[in-house]
Design brief:
721 residues, Rab-GAP_TBC_sf, 44% helix, two-stranded antiparallel ribbon
């Protein structure tokens, strides 16, 4: 008989193990007890040549009589399980069809796998309701807390002052041992030790400890029953009408760190998010709305998945990926994992390392066009921590996060992507803080020297996990340009030290980044984002916009910072791609004609239509500076713009020449100023001059005045009579 190719251990091996266990239970004795490991292997290999494995095993262990007395259907089951060749051995499903189970199977309700949260199958398909619906509401004094999941109750128990370690110490399950007593009595050169029993903590202890809920119930005694069943269609859904409603309203205005430790506030947020997530994706817009307020830590993993638009058979997809076959990247992954957020007990545990390895390998194997770059482990860490017992969801979140915020960052040759990203970041620094930008450029402290780890890992390499959670809670609500604003906000927190120092001191400062106030960073990032015209952060290597048909109806996901969609469709008024060298030569960012029209609140005629709604409240004040000569300006200009001809705008010292509109320009310092011209080089130089003079929020109109001409928006002044 030709020998079969050895297969890795799998479900068929489990069927063999089941057969051995059933055999031992049937005959009442352990198999192979008198044989050492090599003898056992020799004996098992001889089973390949025998006709009846059961008889041979029974003869070897002197229990042939017992076997002969067994019912025929049990003998048949044993023979099926102990079939020597795996290819001929039945699967678990096939075994279940055996007649030995036919008598007992009707006694058990068939197992139906519950639909997972992100699957498209109907989760209420098997829901049965009583004929009289009022039966559901009979018990008025029901224990609402008891209806919540054990994870929720335990989390709230901890918030209310519960201490599991203290409880286990009191019950003497955790016992401290003096270090002197842990020393071995005898030690070999190779490190093998003798004379110490195994530590009790490494042994199974099935003692059950009941934790008292008195403290938690006392803490929640003022919470009304309606708090456990919020009405999702109600405008006040996030603050249920209870006796403590005023306290909750007050809690919502407290700092985030205090809200996260308030038991009653967290109870309300957890219940609300639990209900919204169970209605995902139909309640996707409401999840976005509530996430703007805050995300309860217990629900953060699932909420992030919803914000990232994770859907489908994520477990089946993850299970189908080969995470075992060795690949060239394995060595680098093994080196990186022991250095990634190892201050955390979960991620530093052996199980944490194994999960890290599997999720990272799954990502590398399933993205053959991309490669593993150092830093991918840091990017994986927040998702793995939040979904420690759900690797498939951690993988799905990471796979959705990277294309949105780090599109093509993990190409084998990613230099063009990163260079473009850093150039746009430099322009954002100049746009928001020209004084800091001028200083950093003068000393040669460019973003290439410090910002690559920031953006390649989305700040997970530079901040601890607890800060990343609060930062990403906001990041996931913004589009792919929001990280630029986070980067500028970090620089602004270090502004005074950066302005006072030279190149060497700045390098030292960033080699060990000082403490950053993450709440302030988030607040300032949102403010910077609101001041940034959406096309100013345009990158040709960003993720291409999704087809508009995908983002219709309830499935659209609008960021809360601005009124527009994250990926507006491209039109003739959108920004054009320019070579990287040209982009690097410009200090200030370009904005599209579409943005200019939108910001000026102009009405477009003809076939040009802007896809966004205009809301005056969110528009920053804007000044358009036309730098063409006065003759061209008179022939047609943007309504409300001022004319400062480039040829005579600046003195030899680089100062503004005093003219009729100089005072207007100075009065707009601090507002958005758009430079419009006909020659791209002149507009870039004019903008650079203003940045040198510490004018913030300077940008250039992409394509110049020629982009506006076809729209019919240029006005001609009335002739002077």
């Amino acid at each position: 008989m030709p020998s079969e190719k050895p297969l890795p251990s799998g479900p068929k091996s489990d069927v063999w193990s089941l057969g051995i266990i059933l055999f031992e239970l049937s005959v009442g004795r352990k198999l192979f007890q008198s044989l050492d490991i090599s003898e056992r292997l020799k004996f098992l290999l001889t089973l390949d040549c025998v006709d009846d494995t059961i008889i041979v095993l029974a003869e070897e262990h002197g229990c042939l009589d017992i076997i002969k007395d067994l019912p025929e259907n049990v003998i048949d089951l044993l023979k099926k399980c102990l079939t020597f060749h795996p290819s001929k051995r039945p699967t678990a499903d096939e075994l279940m069809q055996d007649k030995v189970f036919s008598e007992v199977s009707p006694l058990y309700t068939p197992f139906t796998k519950p639909a997972s949260l992100f699957s498209s199958s109907l989760r209420c398909a098997d829901l049965t309701l009583p004929e009289d619906i009022s039966q559901l509401c009979k018990d008025v004094n029901s224990d609402y807390l008891a209806e919540r999941s054990i994870e929720e109750v335990y989390y709230l128990w901890c918030l209310a002052g519960g201490d599991l370690e203290k409880e286990l110490v009191n019950k003497e399950i955790i016992r401290s041992k003096p270090p002197i007593c842990t020393l071995p009595n005898f030690l070999f050169e190779d490190g093998e030790s003798f004379g110490q029993g195994r530590d009790r903590s490494s042994l199974l202890d099935d003692t059950t400890v009941t934790l008292s809920l008195c403290q938690l119930r006392n803490r929640l005694k003022d919470v009304g029953g309606e708090a456990f069943y919020p009405l999702l269609e109600d405008d006040q859904s996030n603050l249920p009408h209870s006796n403590s409603n005023n306290e909750l309203s007050a809690a919502a205005t407290l700092p985030l760190i205090i809200r996260e430790r308030d038991t009653e506030y967290q109870l309300n947020r957890i219940i609300l998010f639990d209900r919204l997530l169970k209605a995902y994706p139909y309640k996707k817009n409401q999840i976005w709305k509530e996430a703007r307020v805050d995300i309860p830590p217990l629900m953060r993993g699932l909420t992030w998945a919803a914000l990232l638009g994770v859907e489908g058979a994520i477990h089946a997809k993850y299970d189908a990926i080969d995470k075992d076959t060795p690949i060239p990247t394995d060595r680098q992954i093994e080196v990186d994992i022991p250095r990634c957020h190892q201050y955390d007990e979960l991620l530093s545990s052996p199980e944490g390392h194994a999960k890290f390895r599997r999720v990272l390998k799954a990502w590398v194997v399933s993205h053959p066009d991309l490669v593993y770059w150092q830093g991918l482990d840091s990017l994986c860490a927040p998702f793995l921590y939040l979904n420690f017992n759900n690797e498939a969801l951690a993988y799905a979140c990471m796979s959705a996060f990277i294309p949105k915020y780090l599109y093509n960052f993990f190409l084998k040759d990613n230099s063009h992507v990163i260079q473009e990203y850093l150039t746009v970041f430099s322009q954002m620094i100049a746009f928001h803080d020209p004084e800091l930008s001028n200083h950093l450029n003068e000393i040669g402290f460019i973003p290439d020297l410090y910002a690559i780890p920031w953006f390649l890992t989305m700040f997970t390499h530079v901040f601890p996990l607890h800060k990343i959670f609060h930062l990403w809670d906001t990041l996931l609500l913004g589009n792919s340009s929001f990280p630029f604003c986070i980067g500028v906000a970090i620089l602004q927190q270090l502004r005074d030290r950066l302005l006072a120092n030279g190149f060497n001191e700045c390098i030292l400062l960033f080699s060990d980044l000082p403490e950053i106030d993450i709440e302030r960073c988030v607040r300032e990032s949102i403010n910077l984002f609101c001041w940034t015209p959406k096309s100013a952060t345009y990158r040709q290597h960003a993720q291409p916009p999704k087809p508009t048909s995908d983002s219709s109806g309830v499935r659209s996901s609008t960021p809360f910072f601005s009124t527009e969609c994250p990926d507006p469709p491209k039109t003739d008024l959108s920004r054009e791609s320019i070579p990287l060298n040209d982009l690097k030569s410009e200090v200030s960012p370009r904005i599209s004609a579409e943005d200019l029209i939108d910001l000026c609140e102009l009405t477009v005629t003809g076939h040009f239509k802007t896809p966004t709604k205009k809301t005056k409240s969110s528009k920053p004040k804007l000044l358009v500076v036309d730098i063409r000569n006065s003759e061209d300006f008179i022939r047609g200009h943007i309504s409300g713009s001022i004319n400062i001809p480039f040829s005579a705008a600046f003195t030899a010292d680089g100062e503004l020449t005093q003219g009729p509109f100089t005072s207007v320009l100075q009065s707009f310092k601090g507002k958005v100023i758009v430079i419009v011209g006909q020659v791209a080089k002149h507009t870039a130089e004019f903008a650079a001059h203003l940045v040198k003079m510490k004018y913030p929020r300077i940008c250039i109109l992409d394509g110049g005045i020629n982009k506006i001409k076809p729209t019919g928006l240029l006005t001609v002044p009335s002739p002077q009579i």
